[in-house]
Amino acid sequence: MNKYIAQLTWLACLSVLLPAVVAAQPPAAEIAKRSLDGFYAAGRDMRVRVSMTLINQQGGERKRELTMLRKNMGSGGEQRYYMYFHAPPDVKGTTFLVWKYPAKDDDRWIFIPAIKLVRRIAASDRRSSFVGSDFTYEDISGRDVSDETHTLLRSEALEDRPCYVLESRPVASADYARRVSWIDSERWIPLKEEYLDGRGQKTRQFSADRVEEIGGHWTVTRRTMRTLQSGKRTEVTFQEVSYDQSLPDNLFTERSLREPPSLAR
Description:
Blueprint: H1 2-24, H2 28-40, E1 45-55, E2 61-72, E3 79-87, E4 95-100, E5 107-112, E6 117-121, H3 137-141, E7 148-158, E8 161-170, E9 178-184, E10 190-196, E11 202-214, E12 217-227, E13 232-243, H4 254-258
Antiparallel strand pairs: 1-2, 1-13, 2-3, 3-4, 4-5, 5-6, 7-8, 8-9, 9-10, 10-11, 11-12, 12-13
């Protein structure tokens, strides 16, 4: 009888505790938004020197060196991005500008110095390869939380870090059917992402290879994107990272595409 009473008491405790545990987990869309904010919008602005290595199936390497400036335009989610390429010689002087808006298509421009032409990048090209890498334009400047529907699959550890495992499915037609993310539940940045096609086959995989706290912000300073079917990958390293530099608005204009500011060069 005592054993039966103990079991009933344990079940009663579970019925009280389990809803509290479930309630403690944020909604999936909130997890997605906090992750996007932590990964793409830390601080008021950011300046970073970026080294990008493109590695093909045979292990051959191509290098890209650039400076990236980013500014948050208030608290509504609007942002500006500016990138200046230092190397290699065939892309030196190329500049890239993004005006990112919440809940509508971003504006993107690229300046190609060899032909002295500013070209607008169509919204449909946002998932195209960024300068030949395994990252897309969207991977560089981010997406809006409403571009996908989100489901919290589970919580689990990834390399000793507590994570929410989130499934995100694009609302509009995309080059992937779903994306599964391991989001650090304390630092609010993605540590791993898998992109899958309609057959459930993995097509690309992102990994955060080094995470550092810089200026009070958790920052992925080394990251890799793999295209699994071809065996290619792109490795990216962030150096000279600085936040909250009070970058002026006039850095993020079409004029700066043709006349790069000293902060970028």
